[in-house]
Amino acid sequence: MTNKTGMTAWLKSLRDVPTKWRRRSRAEHLLLVEAFVLLGAARLAALVLPFKWLAVTLGRRSEDAGPEITAADLHCGRMIGQAVRSAANNTPWESVCLAQAVAGQWMLKRRHIAGTLYLGVTKDATRPEMLAAHAWLRCGNMILTGREGYRQFTVVASFS
């Protein structure tokens, strides 16, 4: 649940939404709405479902889609990544790396575009006895979501 300070910041950020919305194309509007809805579904699924049930929706485990992808699919993937990241910044709930990667993977799969969702772990910098986890989504050679710091994580699972 978001604290009062977080909710206030979120409400203030909504002031810029109408201006940004008007600058976008119809295709971007549709992707943003889809991303917003799927971020909510991914967040809810991560909270209430066992991960093995969620994993079934992500693709085959331990497979890599590979970097070969058409220019059109790469362009669509780039737009999906942007929509997911943008929508995640405007959700009233927490839309962290796992929800973003899952929502993005669902959007790619819906369009029959190859993508690979990675789950990684590393030792927590502040508490070395603990592990930190991260999820990111790759399409072709491009990281769509979770780009920040993904290289420091050891991949423990991938879905394609």
Topology readout:
Elements lengths: L3 H10 L3 H7 L2 H23 L2 H6 L14 H18 L8 H14 L5 E8 L7 E9 L2 E4 L8 E6 L1
Antiparallel strand pairs: 1-2, 1-4, 2-3
Name the features.
160 residues; alpha+beta; 4-stranded antiparallel beta sheet; 6 helices; 4 strands; 49% helix; 17% strand
Write a structural description.
The protein is an alpha+beta fold and 160 residues long. Helix content is 49%, strand content 17%. Strands 3-2-1-4 form a four-stranded antiparallel beta sheet. The model has no long low-confidence stretch (mean pLDDT 88).
Helix content: 40-55%
Q: What is the number of helices?
A: 6
Low-confidence stretches: none
| Binned strand content | 15-25%
- Pattern of helices and strands: HHHHHHEEEE
User: What's the shape?
Assistant: globular
Annotation, overall tally of beta strands: 4
Mean pLDDT: 88
Task: Indicate how many domains the architecture comprises.
Answer: 1
Q: If strands are numbered along the chain, what order do they take across the biggest sheet?
A: 3-2-1-4
Structural class: alpha+beta
Give a quick rundown of the structure.
By secondary structure, the chain is of the alpha+beta class. The protein has helices spanning 4-13, 17-23, 26-48, 51-56, 71-88, 97-110, and strands spanning 116-123, 131-139, 142-145, 154-159.
